[in-house]
User: Fold this.
Amino acid sequence: MEIDATDLRLLDLLQTDASLSNQALAEAAGTSPATALRRVRRLVDEGVIERRVALLNPQALGAGLTALVEITLDRQGAEHLDAFEARAVAEAAVQQVWRVSPGPDFVLVLRVADMPAYQALVQRLFTQDANVRNVKAYFSVKRAKFEPRYELTRPSGSPGP
Assistant:
């Protein structure tokens, strides 16, 4: 799929505010509403836009504890990695699951209400799994930056978004 400067402008605007109406999006991107709608649909159909979501303030919703957790499994066969990954993905408090290398097998980002909720999650997800060899958790004391924005590059010779 070829992405041109107009697509990049639309993507940049949507990363900032996905709630823009098609009319407002087209106006800000300097294109017609029909073109904006057609291009955004194509970007969704092609998988460039995975989904559009609202970013919530976890503190305001009572999810005050963030943990970044390294998991090392005892056995790293594909079936063991897949099994742990499936269990982690299914857990609502797990926001992100990353298979990593080298080092631990997984890094998880967890969001829970408090330490008792974290301990309950540890019991369900890690302690009861005989294949989990090591768990190393880091607890956030401050979120200095959270920007789910992807830096877009423009095609060479094209004006910026």
Notes: The chain has two domains: 5-45, 59-139. The chain has a mean pLDDT of 93.
